[in-house]
Amino acid sequence: MSKVLARRGRWSAYKLVLVQAAVAGVASIVFFALWGVQFGYSALAGGSIAVLPNFVFATLAFSHMGASLSGKIVKSFFLGEAVKLLLTVVLFGCVFSMLDVNVMSLFACYALSLTVPFIASLYFKQN
Asked: Global pTM?
């Protein structure tokens, strides 16, 4: 039963990450269409910096479920959050050191991708 719950929770988190990826992809296409290639790939990099750590968090945080595994659940959430923060810092460092990015479009798409879970939770709460 706990594996079923873990799978169900992980799938819900993956759906949210998929929506984040879709929003980041659409935003990067819009930046590309309106302002050019550098803005487009900068927005894609910003969206990727938001989406990839959330995917890793979803994978780690929802690896255990069930009342008997409550200690492991707490540890997996803390581990997932720590890895997510570290990966975000590393990805920002890699993007700024390796790519010539437009900072405005990178942070705009990053912020837009980070707001998706909050907007989605408001939508799902109403329905």
From this structure: 0.85
